[in-house]
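Hi team,

Below is the intake form for Carbonic anhydrase from Edaphobacillus lindanitolerans. Please confirm the fields before the structure is written into the shared record.

FORM ID: S-0412
PROTEIN: Carbonic anhydrase
ORGANISM: Edaphobacillus lindanitolerans
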Amino acid sequence: MEQQEFVTVINCMDGRVQEPVIQWMKDRYNAKYVDSVTEAGPNKVLLSNNQNKIDSILERVRVSTDKHGSTVLAIAGHYDCAGHAVDGELKKARIRESIELISTWGLDVEIIGLYVNDQWQVEVVDGRARPLQAKAQ
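The structure came back. Fields below:
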């Protein structure tokens, strides 16, 4: 797989989920860098009626896609989120709803959903993620 310079993730600000998601994105997409747009409970923010916050997220994502050339965008949620305290199944449903919203933004990117479980392992919520391939040597 050809190395990508940048990929992007809309992730929770919770430090416990940063490293697992960054490492997963680097491994899955053979990426050199992961641009992170963080919010407390990003799925809750995206699905709110707060257009200013949604526009802020989109503006930051566009820096990654337009200036860094990112072609992959993940929306993540996680277990034990203080910013969006709902059970895992509802969180996964909200991740899917967030993917639907993001798909209306007109970005030329692959959009995937990720959930970090209680073992701090990354699970794919949306089945559109590419299969893991070996890194180029």
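SUMMARY LINE: Residues 4-124 form a domain with the Beta-carbonic Anhydrase; Chain A fold (CATH 3.40.1050.10).

Thanks, M.
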